[in-house]
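We emphasize that the prediction below concerns an isolated chain of 142 residues; any contacts that depend on oligomerization or on bound cofactors are therefore not represented. The input was used exactly as deposited, without trimming of termini.
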Amino acid sequence: MRLGRLAAILLVAESGLFIGYLSQMSLPNEMTPELYCLLFQKVRDNLTANVGTRVDPVTRLAGVDVICDRKALVFHHKVELQVRQIDERWLAQRKLRWSKTYCNRHPTFSNAISDGWKISTILTLADGTELLIDANCHDAEA
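Result of the prediction step, given as a token string:
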């Protein structure tokens, strides 16, 4: 297996940051925590050059963490909104979009979530408020 051939990192405006157009990678049928860790570290390494890039009109990528012993892939985003500008509808749409991105775009991510990995984003608002969103594949089916 060659994890070095990560095909592309795509910025898709409608879904925020969508990583992993993985069709060029040869992945084994059975992924282990160690293989997911290597894959997600490669994703992080490839995204490092995109820190500061807008992923939608009010959001910029601020970084990516891979915490293998906790089975976590965490994206950090800076959102140019104040907490008073966020309502339940906006947050619900963000959660749904995040879940659809990581549950529906490529089976590697949904399989990782099924295998106990968390794929999360921490949204840091302009006033310093932080919001945590986890991809939830049950939500993505809605």
